[in-house]
């Protein structure tokens, strides 16, 4: 069986019991080095998830008789590896175990409701800053190329320097920090983060 299990933002405490059970029953655990390091007592085979996704998919196709769990940051289908695995193998061949996304976690910590929020990602993709500027409320996962400072610069260039950025840094980790800043004041670099953009309040 091939399972893609959501890890949540970072802490094992935020993983669902279903995901934990799948890992306990796995023959093989696939994930980023940071994820695999959290399962030091796992006795089965480990495989690091790297940038060679085609190679990973070929290898997964050869593991039909084994119980393989692929670990995904946050929720597997929120800009995660789950989409790629389902597209390749089909949902009939893949079990997806959802997880708490970093956006959900940040909204829960800050009391920001998600009813009317536009969810997107800057992780490894081009950001439509015009659409971001038009949206009254949005949230996005960032990467090293496009983080809070770059987002703030693009908003300011579109006359929206007073938009409020809620920056969740190192969420669910011991060094978690949450910053509320207008775009015009975002000048620092931030560690692994998620951003919610709100209209001026």
Distance from N terminus to C terminus (CA atoms, Å) equals 49 Å
- The overall number of domains is 2
Low-confidence stretches: none
- Give the CA-based shape: elongated
Cross-sheet strand order for the largest sheet:
3-2-4-1-5
Following the backbone from N to C, one meets helices and strands in this order, namely EHEHEHEHEHEHEHEEE
Strand percentage: 15-25%
Corresponding CATH superfamily of the largest domain? Tetrapyrrole methylase, C-terminal domain
What proportion of the residues is helical, as a percent range? 25-40%
What are the SSEs and their pairings?
Elements lengths: L1 E5 L10 H8 L3 E4 L1 H4 L8 E4 L4 H9 L6 E5 L8 H9 L4 E4 L4 H9 L7 E4 L7 H6 L2 E5 L6 H10 L6 E6 L7 E6 L10 E6 L3
Parallel strand pairs: 1-4, 1-5, 2-3, 2-4, 6-7
Antiparallel strand pairs: 7-10, 8-9, 8-10
Characterization of the model:
The chain is of the alpha/beta class. 27% of the residues lie in helices and 24% in strands. It has 2 domains: 2-97, Tetrapyrrole methylase, N-terminal domain (Cobalt-precorrin-4 Transmethylase, domain 1), CATH 3.40.1010; 102-198, Methyltransferase, Cobalt-precorrin-4 Transmethylase, Domain 2, CATH 3.30.950. It is built from 7 helices and 10 strands. A 5-stranded parallel sheet has the order 3-2-4-1-5, sandwiched between helices. A 5-stranded mixed sheet has the order 6-7-10-8-9, with helices on one face. Helix 2 (33-36) links the parallel strand 2 (28-31) and strand 3 (45-48). The longest helix is centred in the C-terminal third of the chain and has 10 residues, at 148-157. The mean pLDDT is 94.
């Amino acid at each position: 069986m091939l399972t893609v299990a959501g890890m949540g933002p970072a802490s094992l405490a935020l993983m669902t019991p279903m995901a934990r059970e799948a890992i306990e029953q796995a023959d093989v655990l696939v994930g980023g080095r940071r994820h695999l390091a959290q399962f030091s007592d796992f006795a089965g085979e480990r495989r690091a998830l790297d940038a060679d996704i085609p190679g990973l998919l070929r290898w997964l196709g050869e593991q039909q008789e084994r119980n393989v769990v692929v670990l995904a940051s946050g929720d597997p289908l929120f800009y995660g590896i789950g989409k790629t695995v389902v597209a390749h193998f089909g949902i009939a061949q893949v079990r997806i175990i959802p997880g708490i996304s970093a956006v959900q976690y940040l909204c829960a910590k800050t009391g920001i409701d998600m009813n009317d929020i536009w969810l997107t990602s800057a992780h490894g993709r081009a950001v439509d800053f015009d659409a971001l500027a038009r949206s009254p409320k949005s949230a996005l996962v960032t990467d090293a190329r496009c983080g809070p400072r770059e987002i703030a610069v693009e908003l300011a260039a579109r006359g929206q320097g007073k938009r409020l950025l809620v920056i969740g840094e190192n969420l669910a980790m011991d060094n978690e920090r949450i910053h509320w800043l207008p775009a015009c004041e975002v000048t620092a670099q931030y560690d692994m983060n998620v951003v919610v953009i709100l209209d001026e309040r």
